[in-house]
Amino acid sequence: MSGSYRRLVVRCVAVLGLLAGLISPTFALEKVRVGVLEFGTVNWEMDVIQTHKLAEQQGIELEVVPLASADASTVALQGGAVDMIVSDWVWVARQRAADFDYTLFPYSNAVGELLVKVDSPIKTLADLKGKKLGVAGGASDKSWLLLRAFAQQTQKLDLQAETEPQYAAPPLLNELMQRGDLDAVLNFWNYAARLKAAGMRSIITVPDTLEGLGIQRDLPLIGWVFSEKWAKEHAATVNGFLKASYAAKQIMQADDAEWVRLRPRMKADDDAVFTALRDGFRAGIPACFGDKEKQAATDTFRILAEIGGEKLVGTAKVLDKGVFWPDFSLPACTK
């Protein structure tokens, strides 16, 4: 190689190195670590985001971190192992009252339901007196507390005292219900969907209890949760992720073929379960969120604080305005 040619090669390499240094940061994807329950329904949306490269379109490298439980999710967020999780705004309010700066943007309206066997003599909440009632999520579960508040306010019925609550994990509750070891069960939406597909009958849904308490039905109880400080430092990334999340939801809302592709993840044993899970997820997609929904959340928090007490809400007295992330928005609800 001649000296002049060697010098030309060296110069070209130097120029390419300089260009790489200028260009790479501009196009580098910013990583977002999302903690999800290993077998939870959030995985379905993560699959859609990854399959359609919706995060990359927003300049984001999505890392999905599987976690074993809801408690593991909050621990991972608090310990800095993940950037985002799905949790509820009651937890966020409790953390903010303890001087932790978490904030939330709505993820889903899907909530639980109270079910009995199709031939059960139970027709109303009053018929639950003396019955074994399975409850998912424990004694401080939000759906259980709202059901208790509804029963007390509308029928002067103390479900805690006048039934035999059985607290257990959602899959176990479904098993116990199908075996006939429970008279009724209040379970999360995706487990309730499986029971309904198996022929069980609904007594009341959580949206029904909200409406009966004078609160609008379509209230998102869960959302994407993240640190407000981190979000302000990475605002474009956070909002880009939320755009990707809602782009995935729109695909899932409109495209039946996408659900056929997702079916192996759903562990649907038959077509009835598959359809119930698909339709339940779709029904829970928030189409709008605005001031009315924030006021509904404030009213719901007051009820939950009254019945759940400090064990549920900690030192929080009211729903902090910072609970909801303000820098991303859905259309305002018109009804």
UniProtKB/TrEMBL annotation:
It comes from the Bacteria. Pfam families: NMT1. SUPFAM superfamilies: Periplasmic binding protein-like II. Residues 31-256 form the Solute-binding protein family 3/N-terminal domain. Belongs to the bacterial solute-binding protein SsuA/TauA family. This is ABC transporter substrate-binding protein. It comes from Thiothrix fructosivorans.
